[in-house]
Amino acid sequence: MQAWDIEFRALNVGYGEHVVLRDVNAVLPGGKVSVILGGSGCGKSTLLRHIIGLSRPQAGQVLIGNHDLFGLPQKEFRRMRRHMGVLFQDGALLGALSLVQNVTLPLTEHLNISKDLVREAGLRVLRMVGLEDFADFYPNQLSGGMRKRAGLARAIVAEPRILLCDEPTSGLDPITAARMDELLLSMRKQYADMSVVVVSHDLDSLRAIADHVLVLGDGRAIFSGTLAQLEASDDPYLKQFLRREAGDTTSAMHDAPDPTVRQALDRWLAS
């Protein structure tokens, strides 16, 4: 299965007279880890919302695997979104549910499979992020880093073709942040046809995981290319940005899914 590119064509986004993104043109290559980088308020999270399909642009296109996301019929639009997994900045776990219940929400909401198979699938992805022993704990019993890892497990439980991560290392200590980077790289290797998009301002994380970098500034795409190309750039804005961000100090093993779960996922994704 070929990995999906994500392409922005003349994308413009604004709210009233406030322009957030203007004439953004870029391609995030399929099967790679692409990092969207930029300062606060530059439009990173807005761009992520448009990839997910939560917001519609004023003008321009978002293409997923050569399909115009906002030009699709409603049924095809919903089907496309089923192929996306999202890791939210705060993990977005529900406090009344245990960890394994949180992680398996995409399965219990959309698949008609037994509770035993659902739990097995949840334990499998929790094992991948090192949290199997905490399956029956509740979010308030876990550290921030553990909640983020649980959020990552939920994002991949339905084996998405696109994994979207909003500031996955934000608020984490350096050791925990490095662990999150390792997990993201592990997911990319395990799911070869999965495209990973990470919104970040963390340069250490960028250097650890990025195959491709998109830099936003003043609502525009000012750079799109490899990390090596970014660091070799003579562009004054990019050099200043990298120096400024460098001074900011804030900052598993593979288990095959049960074939019954795999078949149910295939039916759901194709419906």
UniProtKB/TrEMBL annotation:
Annotated ABC transporter domain residues: 1-243
Q: Which GO terms describe its molecular function?
A: ATP binding; ATP hydrolysis activity
Give the PROSITE patterns listed for this entry: ABC_TRANSPORTER_1 (PS00211), ABC_TRANSPORTER_2 (PS50893)
Pfam families (alphabetical): ABC_tran
Give yes or no: UniProt keyword Transport.
yes
How is this protein named in the record?
ATP-binding cassette domain-containing protein
* Organism field: Desulfovibrio desulfuricans
Q: Does the keyword ATP-binding apply?
A: yes
**Organism ancestry:** Bacteria, Pseudomonadati, Thermodesulfobacteriota, Desulfovibrionia, Desulfovibrionales
Q: Which UniProt keywords apply?
A: ATP-binding, Nucleotide-binding, Transport
Parts of the chain that traverse the membrane = none
